[in-house]
Amino acid sequence: MTNQLKTYPLKDWGLDIQNPLIIAGPCSVETAEQLDKTVEGLVKQGVKIIRAGVWKPRTRPNTFEGVGSIAFPWIQEAKEKYKVKFAVEVASPAHVEEALKNNIDLLWIGARSTANPFTVQDIADSLKGVDIPVLIKNPINPDLALWIGALERIHEAGITKIGAIHRGFSNFNDTHFRNSPMWQIPIEFKTRFPDIPLINDPSHICGKRALIPQVAQMALDLNFDGLMIESHFHPDAAWSDAEQQLRPEDLGLLLASLKTRQVFVDDPAFASQLQSIREQIDDTDREILELLSRRMGLVEKVGEYKKINNVAVFQIERWKKVFQTRPEWAIALNLNPEFVKELYKMIHTESIKKQTEVMERHLS
Ligand SMILES: O=C(O)C(=O)C[C@]1(C(=O)O)C=C[C@@H](O)C=C1
């Protein structure tokens, strides 16, 4: 057992787990034939754990919400015929009970459920005394604390084989991805819980087949422990998520094309090169901070003048100019202008804070 949540690493989950862990299967189980054909195809590609949606939380009513419990005999048949394990999403104690009764090997909690602590607690209570791996998807909203809270609730119920699934976050404006990956959130998760397996779900992030390879590779580059990918033997005819499911053959090609990265290599030449570059990064960071400190000193000076002359802290025209020119300068310096915009939003917020302090100084 490792880390502050006392969970088992993937290799001790008692399953035949590949590295990276691959879980693939249909968004929803539809028919016995669809499940059989899909699992047959996936097994040929080396997949050992099948994901299968039995109950589907849909945003709008009167859409397909999963076939429900009639899927279990088909799942059982596929388990026996192809010697695979099955993972199913649960959203209520009734789902947990049904899944356990039907020999499901792994459970996962979906993004909408993770967002609701009452639901997570109900599921956790129903898992007391049970020894089954549970994977917890990030909540639909970008709230790391809520994600961690869900893990803690499941952990407090006595579950020790816990993993997290990064499936991206709901958004209003992102037209590229179905769910924005917001990589900084899983990175922060991994930093805080390095021993909890973290799996990426490129299907729900991308929403479109064509984007999946790029996101899956990014996840492996960031040292994720595995991938959960939707696959259907005939995606265009799928009853749900048709655009993001891959044919088993295409999943096989994708898996073959992905490059897995090592955490580190024990090579003295690499280690010394890395150390030398890291020292240069340290020096550069020190310079960046010295420059930032110089800028803040100037901002404070402006604040003093504003105070003497009774001028407002927030200067919209000047700020517009700063906000327009810095990304332009950034392009010339081969920097991403979007990154520089975000950086300057933070710098400006800090400037305003500093000058407000100057204004309020000696007032009391
Ligand atoms: O130019 C000013 O008036 C400043 O106080 C500097 C500064 C900045 O950080 O660049 C800070 C606050 C203003 O809203 C605009 C610009």
Account of the protein in words:
With 364 residues, the protein is α/β, with parallel strands linked by helices. The chain has helices at residues 32-44, 71-82, 93-101, 111-114, 117-126, 144-156, 184-192, 202-206, 212-221, 248-257, 268-308, 316-332, 337-360; strands at 21-25, 49-52, 85-89, 106-109, 134-137, 162-166, 198-200, 226-230. Helices cover 49% and strands 10% of the residues. Strands 1-2-3-4-5-6-7-8 form an eight-stranded parallel beta barrel, surrounded by four helices. Strand 3 (85-89), helix 3 and strand 4 form a beta-alpha-beta unit. The model has no long low-confidence stretch (mean pLDDT 95). Bound molecules: prephenic acid. Prephenic acid binds at residues 299, 302, 314-315, 318-319, 322, 348, 351-352, 355. Prephenic acid is lined by residues 299, 302, 314-315, 318-319, 322, 348, 351-352, 355.
Reading the helices and strands in chain order gives EHEHEHEHHEHEHEHHEHHHH
Under CATH, the topology of the largest domain is which?
Answer: TIM Barrel
Approximate strand percentage: 5-15%
CATH superfamily of the largest domain: Aldolase class I
User: Which strand order do you get reading across the main beta sheet?
Assistant: 1-2-3-4-5-6-7-8
- Distinct ligands: prephenic acid
Number of helices: 13
Number of DSSP-assigned strands: 8
Uncertain ranges: none
Supply the CATH architecture of the largest domain. Answer: Alpha-Beta Barrel
Largest sheet descriptor: 8 strands, parallel, barrel
Mean pLDDT: 95
SS class? alpha/beta
Assigned CATH class of the largest domain? Alpha Beta
Total discrete domains: 2
* Fraction in helix: 40-55%
Radius of gyration: 25 Å
**Shape annotation:** elongated
Q: Give the N-to-C terminal Cα separation.
A: 55 Å
